[in-house]
Each structure stands twice: as structure tokens, then as C-alpha cells.
Amino acid sequence: LGAADPIGVASFESFLDAFKAKAPWLVPTVVGGSAGIGFLYLQALRVCAKPMVYVSLMIWPFGMAAGAIAIMTLPADSVGDMPTSARQITMAILLAMVALYLCVLCCCRARIALTIRTLRTAGEALTATSPVFITCLLLFVVWLALAALLCAVMVVSVFNGAWSTVGDPVTACEYRLNNKGVAALALGGFMFVWSSLLFTEIRGFVVGGTIGHWYYHSNDATPPLNWPSLTASKHAFSKSFGSLCFGSLILALIQVVLFFIEMARNSARNSNNVGLKIVLCIVECIVRCIYDLIRMFTGFVTVVCSISGLTFWCAPPTPPFPAFSSTKSLLC
Questions:
Q1: 24-34 pLDDT, tens per residue?
Q2: In what helix (H) or strand (E) does residue 261 lie, and over which residues does it extend?
Q3: CB-side exposure of 159: number of CA atoms within 13 Å?
Q4: Crossing angle between the packed helical segments 109-128 and 179-217, to the nearest 10 degrees
Q5: How many other β-carbons are positioned within 10 Å of the β-carbon of residue 240?
Q6: Cβ proximity of 189 and 108 under 8 Å
Q7: Rounded to the nearest 5 degrees, what angle is found at the Cα of 198, between the Cα atoms of 147 and 242?
């Protein structure tokens, strides 16, 4: 390289200079534009949730039907010289899929109507409790600060190692972490995953408590709380903090299991053991399904804890899903 600048440094510095010059108006524009788009979306949910749902449901069948018509109407050379019989079969399959999709929609009319009412209510609730967005933004900033600290810990842990030679005679050099570096890196990575899941649960707790306050006190002349999201945040970091940590810990441990399964799959990818590959693929699929179910239930329990003040392991327990009985009695 000589005296020349390393590749990309000059362009990156020019990018920073341009960003500093435009930052005074760029950041407010992005934040204000995002807030404006969110506000318009909430108003659209309140006013026209029904057409939004039906339009979104009709995009796929209209696209499939248009593709079927295009296959038959376009010239043969534009579809890879596909024979007429093959084009007819493809069109029939696409139209049959469209018909099946429409039949499923007809069978789910009640569910679609429930979805429309839910989205409309969500729009009304979030519009009436708009300060919750500010609270969630502050929570996100707190998590960013914590994430930066954990990233710094992981970066520092990388320097706890030494170079060693490979082969005799020496053919290469490799960098290996010592025991302290490995432990610090593993702990920092796990805490990063756990904290990200914890703050996701905290945001769900805050939103659930805020919406619950709106639902039960929206018709009151003087609601008991002026800023319910702040009260929910205080409870999340005090009375219910243990429950939120426990729920997020379960998800973090399952993600660790998934990490080791993915490592095993990557190690077995270059081997000739087909049976091991199949077994690891099936195990990963099962664990991911379990993770999705537990994450859905954990979010459900988080909302119940926010509204009722119960703990994660609230009585009466219903193994293996604690809090199910209390949740059912509360919402049904």
C-alpha cells in the first residue's frame, strides 16, 4: 500500500463528513417521517381495517390468477418455449390453488371478521395510548446502552488469548483464546441474548399493561393513571422483574440449545453420515417448534402478569403450563 490510504478509508471518511453535514436535518426527518407513517397507519386501522384486511388477503390469489393467464397469453418464446399442454396444466394447477385458497377464506369468514375487529380495536387503543411509544423508545435506548456494554465485554474477551503455531514444520498460525477469554466471551454472548429477550418481554409487559388500563378505564371520566406506560415500566423493573427475567431465561436457554444444534449441523455438513444429518435436521425442527410455542405462551403470560399483577408461576399451577388456569379465568 505504501503511502496510499487503505482501501475504503477515504470514502468512509467522506461519508462521515457528509453525514455530519446533513445530520442536523436528516435525523429529525427520519424520526418525524417514521412517526408520521405510524400515525397514518394507526388511523387507517381505525377507519378502514376491513378493506385493508381483504386487500391483503386478495393479493396472493390475484397474483396467482394473473400468472396463470399470463402463461397462456404470452408468446411461447417468452415462457421458455413451454409446450401448450404443459402451459395448460400449469394454468390449471394455479387456478386450482386459487380456488382452494378462496374456499379456505370462505370457511374462515368468522376468523377474518374477528381479525378485522381486533385490528380496529388495536388502532383505537394505540391511538388513545400514544405515549406508550415514547416509553418503548426510552426502553429501547436503555437496551442499546446495555447491549453496547455487553459488546465491549465480548470484544475485550477476544484479546485474552495468544498466537500458536500449527504443524511441525510450522505451516500456519492460529489465535486461540485462553480459558478466561472463552468464559468471558460465552458469558457475554449469553447475557446479550438474554438481555435482548428480556427487554422484548419488558416492552410487551408495558404495552399489555397500558392497553389493559385503556380497556378497563377508557369510559371513566377520570382514569386512575395519567401515564399508564410509566407505571407499567415501574412494575416491570420492580415487582414483576423476576417473572420477566424467568420467562426470557427460558427462551434464552432454548436459543443456546439451537446454537449448539446448528454447530453440530455445520460440523456434520461435510461428512458422509447421512443419518446424522437427517437426525440433526429433525431435532432442530422439533426444537424450533417448541421454541415458537413457548415464546407465544411466554408473551401471553407476560400480558397476564402485566394486567393482573400475578407472577409467572402464579397459582393455581397447571403443569407443564403454569398460569394457564389464571390466564383462562382472567380473559374468558
A1: 777 677 778 87
A2: helix 241-268
A3: 4
A4: 90
A5: 24
A6: no
A7: 125
